[in-house]
UniProtKB/TrEMBL annotation:
One of its GO terms (cellular component) is plasma membrane. It comes from the Bacteria. This is Phosphate ABC transporter, ATPase subunit. Keywords: ATP-binding, Cell membrane, Membrane, Nucleotide-binding, Phosphate transport, Translocase, Transport.
Amino acid sequence: MNIIEVKNLNLFYSKFQALKDISMDIKEKKVTALIGPSGCGKSTFLRCLNRMNDLIDGVKIKGDVIINGRNIYKDRVDIVELRKNVGMIFQKSNPFPMSIFDNVAYGPRINGIRDKKRLEEIVENSLKKAALWEEVKDDLKKSGLSLSGGQQQRLCIARALAVEPEIILMDEPASALDPISTTKIEDLIFELKKNYTIVIVTHNMQQAARVSDQTAFFYMGDLIEFNDTKKLFTAPENEKTEAYISGRFG
Ligand SMILES: Nc1ncnc2c1ncn2[C@@H]1O[C@H](COP(=O)(O)OP(=O)(O)OP(=O)(O)O)[C@@H](O)[C@H]1O
């Protein structure tokens, strides 16, 4: 089933067109990777899926993004609800300057959950789902900022999971991490897709090939090819895709 349907999406930063008539259906509980050379529009596209571009001055968006049957740009949509349902993980982990517990409890508290036991449950479950619990369970009062880079990124994933999203957007979540931490994030993505839909921007083609079910190749604002990951990397249909995956540009 398609959880996200993008139809004829165009995005302008003032006069510059960064996305050109993009249409793409994203399947539920699968990992979709967005690849392409720097500046091709991957992050811009990702941010369209939870209206993060609304925050940028001079942005104009035309077209439709339909999530669970609701057009997030046209129907009356509560942005806070939307971002709860469509969580986001950034390249640079950004824990709040507070304890591990408070980082994960932050969203649930904003949503009005006050009961201590309930919060403890949510924090424990979210940290378990983010594969961080075992490493931090003995000192949840420790500052989130005192964790290693890889742990901080998993803390941010736990924080996103604590408000029960359906979709998680990841913008190069492992590009600042060492190989071992990267493997942990990749293993986690594999685990998470049992319950969540994941859309991930990555510069790393091996990573896209390892973690994703479907891959979209962008080039200069165009969606050049969108295919099953295996097919895209072994028998691409477009010659630009082939040139890119074989390292001839980008
Ligand atoms: N806030 C902005 N204002 C103006 N132009 C922007 C803005 N953000 C991005 N752009 C331009 O839009 C195009 C797409 O940028 P985007 O960041 O989406 O590309 P990307 O494929 O994610 O690149 P990278 O891999 O380098 O992160 C680029 O030409 C970029 O310069």
